[in-house]
Specification:
Blueprint (H helix, E strand, L loop, with lengths): L1 E7 L11 E8 L2 H8 L8 E3 L5 E2 L4 E8 L4 E6 L3 E7 L4 H10 L17 H5 L2 E2 L2 E2 L4 E8 L4 E6 L20 E11 L11 H7 L7 H15 L7 E2 L8 E3 H10 L5 E5 L2 E4 L1 H7 L6 E2 L2 E3 L7 E3 L5 H19 L8 E2 L1
Parallel strand pairs: 2-5, 3-5, 4-20
Antiparallel strand pairs: 1-2, 6-7, 7-12, 8-9, 10-11, 10-12, 13-19, 14-16, 15-16, 17-18, 18-19
Length: 336
């Protein structure tokens, strides 16, 4: 367990925001986690993973824990599935590539999503018709108040759209150390969402494979999303709002090209990027921050912007969408 003092967290968040913390503790093993919480250290002010779903708006007083538990291990196999346990500190995209190389299907549609494995179930990350819950088996988490380990099944995680129990009831109360996935040996290809089929056709793919789908997703994402290593961002900043079908139909009479998808229970999931673009924010730049020119869902830091500036921009967007459409956007990122 390594401890640093007076640390700039710029390199630990994909938005590239420069804020300082009094103390940064690197937890590289489960033993480190137990050691920390059984020591005389105070409760952490922030638990960090890959820093990919986070907007830091101020310096952090107290202690920041960074979970860096590594390792990939096959726990068991059946004729159809393989159960793989992955350390929370493993890079998500590198794990996707590892699965493709081993012929394990199920997460190829989630290629190139920034962040680490431990944050994937917290957020129930999803893209191109696939969410983590569809391949999730269980996870191991340390319960801070009880100083004990607990295993969580899929049902116990209370997954929802970009939601889990770790963003609600157990927020700041549990530390995820590892996640076990139930991956398929016999692929069930999912190509119907977004532009995957068109990209596969452009790539002239003859024999469909999980690698081909991953390559298509990577190409699509790179064409419209900024690389956090070059332009600070956290991917989609807002959730796609869900409204009643009747409200969607009413808005459709005024905005005939409004984009929405059936969400069940008489509701429609509206494309937040479309709303933001219609409100005139796509490509808007204010000094060294703004809205990405190719994807209105992505707020960006071109270098040197503060988290508060980006937060204020998100407030402006929320207010504008409410005034124009009567829809309240919800942030997908965690604001500190």
């Amino acid at each position: 367990m390594d401890v640093e003092t007076n640390v700039d967290l710029l390199q630990y968040n994909t938005f590239g925001i420069s804020v300082r913390t009094e103390k940064l503790v690197h937890l590289r093993t489960e033993s480190n986690i137990e050691e920390y919480f059984n020591s005389t250290y105070n409760k952490p002010s922030l638990i960090l993973g890959g820093g990919s779903n986070l907007l830091l708006t101020k310096d952090i007083e107290g202690i920041v824990l960074r979970v860096e538990v590594a390792g990939i291990k096959v726990l068991r196999e059946t004729d159809d599935h393989v159960f793989v346990q992955v350390g929370a500190g493993e890079n998500w995209h590198q794990f996707v590539i590892y699965c493709i190389q081993n012929g394990w299907a199920g997460i190829e549609n989630l290629s190139l999503i920034p962040g680490n494995v431990g944050t994937a179930p917290m957020q129930n990350i999803g893209a191109y018709g696939v969410e983590i819950e569809s391949v999730f088996d269980s996870l191991q988490a340390y319960i801070i108040d009880d100083k004990s380990w607990q295993s969580f099944s899929r049902d116990e995680c209370n997954f929802g759209y970009r939601e889990s129990i770790f963003k609600r009831a157990l927020k700041d109360k549990a530390l995820i150390a590892s996640v076990t996935f139930r991956l398929s040996k016999k692929p069930n290809f999912n190509t119907s969402y977004g532009a995957i089929e068109a990209e596969l056709e452009r790539m002239k793919v003859q024999d469909l494979s999980i690698k081909a789908i991953s390559d298509a997703v990577i190409t699509i994402r790179q064409s419209k999303l900024p690389d956090p290593a070059k332009i600070g961002n956290s991917g989609s900043f807002f959730k796609n709002p869900v409204i009643y079908q009747s409200a969607f139909d009413q808005l459709k009479t005024e905005y005939s090209d409004m984009v929405g998808y059936p969400s069940g229970d008489g509701k429609v999931k509206v494309a937040a990027g479309w709303l933001i673009e219609q409100a005139g924010f796509k490509g808007m730049r204010v000094g060294n921050y703004g809205v990405h020119e190719k994807q209105a869902l992505v707020l960006v830091n071109y270098g040197g912007a503060s988290g508060q500036q980006i937060f204020d921009l998100s407030e402006q967007i929320i207010e504008s969408i409410d005034q124009q459409f009567g829809i309240i956007l919800e942030r997908e990122v965690n604001v500190i």
